[in-house]
Amino acid sequence: MLGMVDGNGHPYSWSAIFNGYDPEEMKHCPYAAIPAYLGKEPKRTLRIGGANVTHIWTDDPEDAVRVSRASLIPHIVSRPEDVIGEVDAVIVSTDKGHEHVERCRPFVEAGIPVFVDKPLVDNEADLLVFADWVRRGKAILSSSSMRYTKEFMPYRISTSSLGDIRFATITTPKSWERYGIHALEAIYPIVGPGFVSVRNTGRADKNVVHLKHASGADIVIAAHADMYGAFGMLQLCGTAGSAFAQSQDTFYSFKTQLQSFIDYLRTGSRPFPFEETVELMKLVIAGIRSREQGGREVELAEIAPALQDGHYTV
């Protein structure tokens, strides 16, 4: 478990999902929601079987000590690279996309499978690097936990009762750069690939993003910095019906997300095509570009054109 940045407590919660945890030490976790949702889960269903977090490194060494005590991690390392030769895979548990190429590089080059927290990237140059690594057969997986939200599962299976989706909305707190992917990846398995353009008419702390899809659906995502009371509120409006659902079981989403990585390590079969991650990252990047250019409608084809149609030539 490598890395810890401001506003992100994944090393605590994700490690606990593998290792279990010490309830007394977990009380000191600076993210109150983590011990709250872990405490609701029975011990018999808490952990992912057959996998453990054995080593931890964090940007602030004191964080590593606290996480290791809370989430029962036996080894603290002084450099991320120190885990090479000691582990079967690494999790890069940070959500600043512009840092991920350099955080992942030592492990990709050493042939160690990597799971990268969302978003994988937030710029074109880094997307090209990851795409080239995957093209060369490197085992890299990245996702938002919202891909696995159980409250949205019925609509991933089918929206036939709603007719043709004409309009959809979804909400998230925090920034578009770090949390826009939560909203995007929640709705992506419902509408599928085929996004056409992105227009962000908001500002850095209040993003309002209009996405057009080849199906004819219009999708609006609101990412407001302090909108913590409305995380993951999904609305679907179709020609024959409508639906509303809200993400509520954070633990389920995280455990299912991490289990998908373990399954990928065991089978070599991706839980979803990397092409989906490429399209999602283009949406993240297009949303940033549109906002920075005064709300211009940015065609998805503008973003990393070398990656069109899954041809990862860089």
Automatic annotation (TrEMBL):
It comes from the Bacteria. Gene3D superfamilies: Dihydrodipicolinate Reductase, domain 2 (3.30.360.10), NAD(P)-binding Rossmann-like Domain (3.40.50.720). One of its GO terms (molecular function) is nucleotide binding. Residues 50-127 form the Gfo/Idh/MocA-like oxidoreductase N-terminal domain. This is Oxidoreductase. It comes from Paenibacillus hemerocallicola.
